[in-house]
DNA sequence: ACATCATTCAAGCGATAACTTGAATTATAG
DNA sequence: CTATAATTCAAGTTATCGCTTGAATGATGT
């Protein structure tokens, strides 16, 4: 028996929490929730230097939140399993349930106007089946190409204004992005509503949609 | 709109994770999962100095994992809601699913022998109803007095050997303690099995039992 | 076997966190 | 209103974390 088993156990639990306690690592996990990637691609996407990115990834691996394998010259990282995603989600839920600060930040995105309720994934699936909705994918083109909700239109935030006149203003728009950590969809909905369109946000993002076992086109 | 809403949001999520990233604060949360308490009682139970304890509690409050109220001269802290408990549980599940380290620590407790599966709460409830089980509460007497599973016997680890001869060796023993962070039940089961008794551990602890809406006697 | 290139290691710096000690608050109780 | 007692704040020390820079590793593929 070790000197203090109780303390050693707590230390292990704390290690997992500490791995989630840096914004840079949450960004990396958000990227990895989209799809597995190599170190350089992750560094690119997050704006971290390669060495720094590698160190963060090793901390995530030490906490067993991600795993790695070699593919040719690159080391590919990915989330260990769905539990990692669950943990990220619960972290977000607790933060949003509890912190007035978070609400103020999200409020700021929509310029003080209250954001409407998010659309649930089952609702969106039903309305997709009857064709009564336009789906907007507000992610970079490469992530869209790697997989998206069938029928979705891929637009960056800056392209939105240009496309608005071509949209049927009576059909509701549902926007989604990378997931709950991502603010693109929030911003898109705010922009569309300011232009007088009926827009709402999908609950979660593509990783959650995929995790539900719903169809993904690539 | 703030300078970088995305980064600000991630910072908030990271704050919650950081609050869970120190063993001392996990100890405090484990105590608070038992029942609400004042600063001095918590400092006593965890072995922290009062000032240090107060500072940790304020970090937990900043992350909105706990709330406080004044009662007479004392400030009483308690978990904000069940989500806090859920988050602690998921943290533990991920750590135990993933970290070989954790298994080795728990293995060490039972001196290399594989620990048997934990008993689920619904199983224990059913077997309590038919009286085919002895329930052991391995927590300090004051926590036992504040609430326990009906019919449970309260014993400290050191008292276990003395009581063994009085037990019916054909009836299975189920031991529980504060919860998944707590190793008392693990140690009790290991000790009992070494003495040749048929003992297993309850899944989770009293907080989880109570959260299930099952009867608690005090 | 060797050259290549992505990744990882190592050292250094500035910033932040944990813990201790001692003083300042703050709400109650007399 | 003042005294009291619990809690919180503040300052100082040590340790750890995040990031940068530059060198080392190690598997691949020629």
UniProtKB/TrEMBL annotation, chains A, B:
It comes from the Bacteria. This is ArsR family transcriptional regulator. InterPro entries: ArsR-like_HTH (IPR011991), HTH_ArsR_DNA-bd_dom (IPR001845), Metal_resp_trans_reg (IPR051011), Rhodanese-like_dom (IPR001763), Rhodanese-like_dom_sf (IPR036873), Thiosulphate_STrfase_CS (IPR001307), WH-like_DNA-bd_sf (IPR036388), WH_DNA-bd_sf (IPR036390). Residues 129-218 form the Rhodanese domain. SMART domains: HTH_ARSR, RHOD. Gene3D superfamilies: Rhodanese-like domain, Winged helix-like DNA-binding domain superfamily/Winged helix DNA-binding domain. Residues 5-99 form the HTH arsR-type domain. NCBIfam families: HTH_metalloreg (NF033788). One of its GO terms (molecular function) is DNA binding. Keywords: DNA-binding, Transcription, Transcription regulation. Pfam families: HTH_20, Rhodanese.
